[in-house]
């Protein structure tokens, strides 16, 4: 990047998904234009790990939200394609960065859904304009959204006299890392309908703090609109106003609540589900559960920038010391964990940097030799010896001669506990716990870790703070060595390491776990040097403003160095997102072409899931 921004202009439509006519389906049929008049009265069914009767859609109320459903109700300005490293326009027609301003010009053919309230009143139906986007960004400002740290104002540069569209202007406040800002701005779901503001000032943030039973049905912009919800599921139907409406030749999309992964496997095997969003079924689990997936189900993998790992407790008497954490990282074999956890295509992580393999290659090229490569048990023994640990008859004791405390929190056995609500990833996490247990036993010998096979309420997978609090309440916090499976580093389709580091080291910082935001770490590329205090928040703030490539790479390397030297958590493996689609009765492009986000989310928008028979 240069001191002055080059002009960015993106309008290339992704062709690899066989958008519109001419795409070749996996079952040999042609996907593409299908008249809404020939729409078949069938439903595409997918499972969701959520209580659908209490799901609510207030964009400023985080309680009981279901992102899997919202991905259909609301459109973003653009989607990110991780394979080609570009944004694909959706609501936005184009965007440009020039001098100190980002301008976003909207498509003119999108409307807010027209939906009926419980009283029979019809709401929505307005065209989507620049004012809607500006209003949403203003509410983000009121909510202290991080991207507002680098912008000074958002305004309507052009509002159409009639119809939809217009142009939004976003003014920068000083230096800005455009790659970071584009992700923050373009990938937001546009969800703040004018309906929310009919009787209040647009500047009153409190107007969106509505109770779930007061804000009526959701008014969205996506290819499907709200139709109904019960304790069995949430039903959506094609939105007639959406540009892709005529590409959808089936009647409804049903998100059905499930209580266990057994229900998902049984449903897939019995043909009750037509696909899944994300599911990881290790071979060992499928064999133990007695389920087999039908040959008509096609496994689809999509790029992501995250994976599975282990959340360490920094308040544990030994894990308080970063050298002890480094010793554990040397004992941990991610390759062995991978073998037991998934049958999907994955890449193990031996270089603990907090980055995905692709990000590592991009930002640490030529620097890898300066980072510690983990997986060396001899080095683990050396580190433990430096800390005063001793080994007698191959059994390790701490500096006081006592045995190690290795209590861990794990997931329930998915082949036995079939009633509790579980995440699609929990079967894989369960087997990962066992793999880590075996590795610790092999190294420490008779120090058998106490694995607590319990899982809270099935809703805290991405909230280790909440997980920890449940154990501090019962006074066992200091004895817990690691929390499993409460660790998923990175996120689907993140475009920049800034977002990965911010999510993993700040948003999940968890003072209860004793990590960050100020850490002690030796200087970059000098692991034996004197430790210095580094405030992660300040480094991330600098990265958010880094508009020169050399400075950006330096800051990414510093943050990767912090992870490598302090080992706040263990990266187990990098994995793509895995979904299943049923080609019996449905057609879609070949798996190699399904490379943008979750296929069950993206394909209906482009007409690339097509019903092929009446059922």
Tell me about this structure.
Belongs to the bacterial solute-binding protein 5 family. With 615 residues, the chain is of the alpha+beta class. The chain contains 15 helices and 29 strands. The strands form ten sheets. Strands 16, 17, 20, 21, 22, 23 and 26 form a seven-stranded mixed β-sheet that branches. A four-stranded mixed β-sheet has the order 3-14-13-12, with helices on one face. The N and C termini lie far apart (54 Å).
Would you state the CATH class of the largest domain? Alpha Beta
Q: Portion of residues in helices?
A: 25-40%
The largest β sheet comes out as: 7 strands, mixed
Q: Please tell me what the overall shape is.
A: globular
Q: Give the second-level CATH assignment, the architecture of the largest domain.
A: 3-Layer(aba) Sandwich
**Number of separate domains:** 2
InterPro entries: SBP_5, SBP_5_dom, TAT_signal
Domain Solute-binding protein family: 86-396
Keywords: Signal, Transport
GO molecular function: peptide transmembrane transporter activity
């Amino acid at each position: 990047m240069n001191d002055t921004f080059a002009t960015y202009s993106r309008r290339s439509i992704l062709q690899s998904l066989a958008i519109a006519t001419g795409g070749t389906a996996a079952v040999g049929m042609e996907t593409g234009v299908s008249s809404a008049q020939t729409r078949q009265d069938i439903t595409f069914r997918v499972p969701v790990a959520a209580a659908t009767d209490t799901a609510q859609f207030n964009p400023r109320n985080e309680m009981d939200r279901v992102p899997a459903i919202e991905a259909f109700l609301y459109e973003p300005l653009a989607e990110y394609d991780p394979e080609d490293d570009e944004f694909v326009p959706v609501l936005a027609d184009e965007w440009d960065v020039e001098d100190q301003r980002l301008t976003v010009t909207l498509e003119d053919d999108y409307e807010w859904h027209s939906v009926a309230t419980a009283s029979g009143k019809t709401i929505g139906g307005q065209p989507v304009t620049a004012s809607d986007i500006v209003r949403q960004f203003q509410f983000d400002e009121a909510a202290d959204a991080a991207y507002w740290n680098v912008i000074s104002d958002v305004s309507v540069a052009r509002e159409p006299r009639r119809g939809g569209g217009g142009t939004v202007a976003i003014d920068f406040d000083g230096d800005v890392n455009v790659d970071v800002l584009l992700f923050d701005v373009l990938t937001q779901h546009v969800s703040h309908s004018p309906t929310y503001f009919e009787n209040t000032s647009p500047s009153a943030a409190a107007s969106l703090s509505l109770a779930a039973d007061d804000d009526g049905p959701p008014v969205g912009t996506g290819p499907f609109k709200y139709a109904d919800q019960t304790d069995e599921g949430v039903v959506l139907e094609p939105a007639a106003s959406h540009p892709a409406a005529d590409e959808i030749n089936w009647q409804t999309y049903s998100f059905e609540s499930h209580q266990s992964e057994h229900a998902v496997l049984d449903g897939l095997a019995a043909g009750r589900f037509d696909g899944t969003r994300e599911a990881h079924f290790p071979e060992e689990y499928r064999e133990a559960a007695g389920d087999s997936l039908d040959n008509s189900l096609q496994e689809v993998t999509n790029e992501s920038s995250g994976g599975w790992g282990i959340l360490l407790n920094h308040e544990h008497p030994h894990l308080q010391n970063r050298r002890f954490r480094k010793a554990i990282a040397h004992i941990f074999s991610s390759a062995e964990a991978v073998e037991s956890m998934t049958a999907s295509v994955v890449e193990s992580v031996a270089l603990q940097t907090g980055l995905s393999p692709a990000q590592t290659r991009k930002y640490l090229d030529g620097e890898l030799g300066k980072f510690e490569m983990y997986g060396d048990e001899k080095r683990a023994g050396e580190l433990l010896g430096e800390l005063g640990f001793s080994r007698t008859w191959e059994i390790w004791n701490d500096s006081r001669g006592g045995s190690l405390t290795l209590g861990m929190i794990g997931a329930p056995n998915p082949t036995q506990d079939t009633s509790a609500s579980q995440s699609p990833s929990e079967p894989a996490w369960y087997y990962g716990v066992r793999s880590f247990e075996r590795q610790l036993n092999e190294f420490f010998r008779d120090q058998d870790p106490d694995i607590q096979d319990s899982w809270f309420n099935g809703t805290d997978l991405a909230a280790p703070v909440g997980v920890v609090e449940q154990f501090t309440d019962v006074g066992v916090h200091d004895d817990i060595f690691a929390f499993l499976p409460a660790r998923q580093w990175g996120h689907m389709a993140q475009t920049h390491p800034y977002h990965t580091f911010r999510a993993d080291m700040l948003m999940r910082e968890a003072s209860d776990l004793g990590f960050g935001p100020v850490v002690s770490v030796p200087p970059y590329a000098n692991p034996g040097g004197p430790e210095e205090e580094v405030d992660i928040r300040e480094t991330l703030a600098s990265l958010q403003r880094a508009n020169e490539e050399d400075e950006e790479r330096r800051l990414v390397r510093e943050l990767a160095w912090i992870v490598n030297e302090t080992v706040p958590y263990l990266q187990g493996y990098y994995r793509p997102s895995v979904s299943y689609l049923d080609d019996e009765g449905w057609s879609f492009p070949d798996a190699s072409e399904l490379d943008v986000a979750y296929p069950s989310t993206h394909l209906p928008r482009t007409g690339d899931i097509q019903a092929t028979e009446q059922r």
